[in-house]
Amino acid sequence: MAQILILGAGRVARPCVQYLLRNTEHSVTVVDIDENNLKRATGGHPRSQIIVGDAANETERFIEQVKPHIVINLLPAQFMPPVAKKCVEFGINYVDPSYIKDEMRSLDAAAKEKGVLILCELGLDPGIDHMSAAKTIKEIHEKGGLVDSFWSCCGALPSLCDNNNPLGYKLSWSPEALIGASKRTARFLRNGEVVVLPDGETYKHPSLVDVEGLGCFEEYANADSIPYIELYGIKEAKHVYRGTFRYPGWCELIAKMNDLGLFETTEMDLKELTYRDFMAKILNTGKANVEEKLCSALGREAFSSVFLKLKWLGLLSEEKIPFETGSPRSVVASLFHKRLVFSKGEKDLVLMEHRYVASFPKENTKKLITSTLICTGSVDEDTAIAKTTGIPPAIGAMLILQGKIKATGVHAPVLPEIYEPSLKLLEKEGITFTEKETTI
Questions:
Q1: Calpha distance 62→25 (Å, rounded)
Q2: Which among 96, 120, 144 is the end of a domain?
Q3: What residues are paired with 246 via a beta bridge?
Q4: Maximal CA-CA distance, the chain
Q5: Helix (H, G, I), strand (E, B) or coil at 334
Q6: Helices (H), 288-412
Q7: Can you tell me the distance from the alpha carbon of 419 to that of 137, in angstroms, rounded to the nearest whole number?
Q8: What percentage of the chain exceeds 90 in pLDDT?
Q9: How many domains are there within the chain?
């Protein structure tokens, strides 16, 4: 029986833990500072153990205590490289669902020397997106085709039936991460040229797209799409674009909040201030004139949807801010925490779609290939975002322990030995793509 150590028992942990307990005979130990989270993740299973402790800062102690054969890291992204480094030092294989940054990439040589696999970006996005794209692109190339265009979007949203607040969004992941994305620079390839939208400008360039069976969504460019040209082996592509799905109206709101400076990180004195007082400071006006000044700053009337959304969020209320110092970003986060919540019995939605335009010179044909993933979950059990983020690293760990993945070093899941069995196992969990091919 192998020992599996899971660090972190937050939102995505339960599907990860339960998959391993259901599909392997291994022992699973989970570490978290919150005992309630641990009990929910493990469900009291006889092959599970819980440790209440600081998984982020005491990794070495828990590795020495548990003596794991593999570590799955579900902690926040900033704790990924330090934990991975410890795993390399101890010669232990490692899996996480977070992006590979330079600090993680720098462990590649040491991991190979130790014969250790550091398997990252194995969640939903990144993760399932990589595996699906790598599989389809490989199939196109094997048929003698060329990928002219690659377009991919993903979103974690309230389900259509529970999309019932003015913002069209509810938190199924960290509000801090959501707000951090509001200032992110986006890069993508259009007509062979790199397009850069700095510091949240991407929200001023959305488009509307139809998803078959679900309807119309808003999408905007997300982060840096350029590295995927090499990662996916599509140097022939003239268009490479990765984006995020939202319900219509989100981009206008975030763009205007950016213009107001509501996502800045400069600390302010907030002692005894209400949210209305805070907005008066942001707008450099008195409390009595906040509505008028806000409309002027927005370039909108008081009946506009953006104004009404900010009012609904609570930025004009006389409620006191629950901390004495903080940034505009932390003030907004406090309202997101309060207002953008799922209610009991509600469902969430994960939507991912890839669109490939592929040309086949021998047949003199061009095809549009569409791959769509639709997954729903429940806040009373496991959300869709928890399932699609938590199950992939569990599958990766299981395959490594079974000896089915031989790679060493730092990898994303774009190798056939990783994505082929992983996608088949995800299908058994109901996480599957519907594909459609059209000659154009």
A1: 21
A2: 120
A3: 218
A4: 72
A5: helix
A6: 290-298, 305-313, 328-339, 384-401
A7: 12
A8: 95
A9: 3
Residue 181 has pLDDT above 90, yes or no: no
- Cβ atoms 95, 391 nearer than 8 A: no
Residue 335 lies in a domain: no
| Same-domain status, 227 and 366 | yes
Mean per-residue pLDDT for 304-321?
Answer: 97
Cα separation, 352 vs 166, whole angstroms: 23
Spatial separation of the C-alpha atoms in residues 144 and 156, rounded to whole Å:
35
**Are residue 75 and residue 178 in the same domain, yes or no?**
no
Q: pLDDT tens-digit profile of 394-411? A: 999 999 999 999 999 999
* Predicted local distance difference test score (pLDDT) of residue 178: 84
Cβ neighbour number for residue 77 with a 10 Å cutoff? 15
Mean pLDDT of the chain: 96
pLDDT of residue 173: 72
Q: What's the pLDDT at 2?
A: 94
Q: Which residues contact 99 (CB under 8 A, 6 or more apart)?
A: 77, 120, 121, 126
Phi-psi region of 432 (alpha: psi -120 to 50; beta: other; left: phi over 0): beta
Q: Is 115 helix (H, G, I), strand (E, B) or coil?
A: coil
Q: How many other CB atoms sit within 10 Å of the CB of residue 103? A: 13
The gap from C-alpha 104 to its chain's centroid, in whole angstroms, comes to 18
Residue 399 domain-assigned?
A: no
Q: Please report which confidence band the pLDDT of residue 172 belongs to, taking 50, 70 and 90 as the band edges.
A: confident
Burial (CB count within 10 angstroms: exposed 0-12, middle 13-18, buried 19+), residue 127: buried
Question: What range defines the domain where residue 280 resides?
Answer: 267-324
Global pTM value: 0.94
